[in-house]
Amino acid sequence: MKFTLGPLAIIALAASCTNRISNEERMLLEADKANKKLELMYLEEIRIAEENQDHDAYRYFLNEYFKVERLKIPPRLQSHPDYTKGGIDIKY
Question: Is 24 exposed, middle or buried (0-12, 13-18, 19+ CB in 10 A)?
């Protein structure tokens, strides 16, 4: 009995191979996701402080927002399913 892979099976196999990343790359994506969640939280606090005209809170959260590390994610990882898109478009 002869077994052959059809075109769809080959495409599926190739796609699953491209999603494989190292533990270091996975940790980078997880750290990036955590940082982006932190950024969103600070942006929300900044918005609330602006709304309430709370200048002290605004300055505090703006400084905290600036301290969040922005990680350099290689382009090939930006297309990985575990990559978290960030930016102001996500929040507003």
Answer: exposed
pTM above 0.85, yes or no: no
d(CA 87, CA 85): 7
CB-count burial class (<10 Å; 0-12, 13-18, 19+) for 39: buried
pLDDT tens track, the chain, 92 positions? 555 666 655 555 445 555 689 999 999 999 999 999 999 999 999 999 999 999 999 999 999 999 999 999 999 999 999 999 886 566 55
Report the candidate in 14, 38, 25 with the shortest Cα–Cα distance to residue 72. Answer: 25
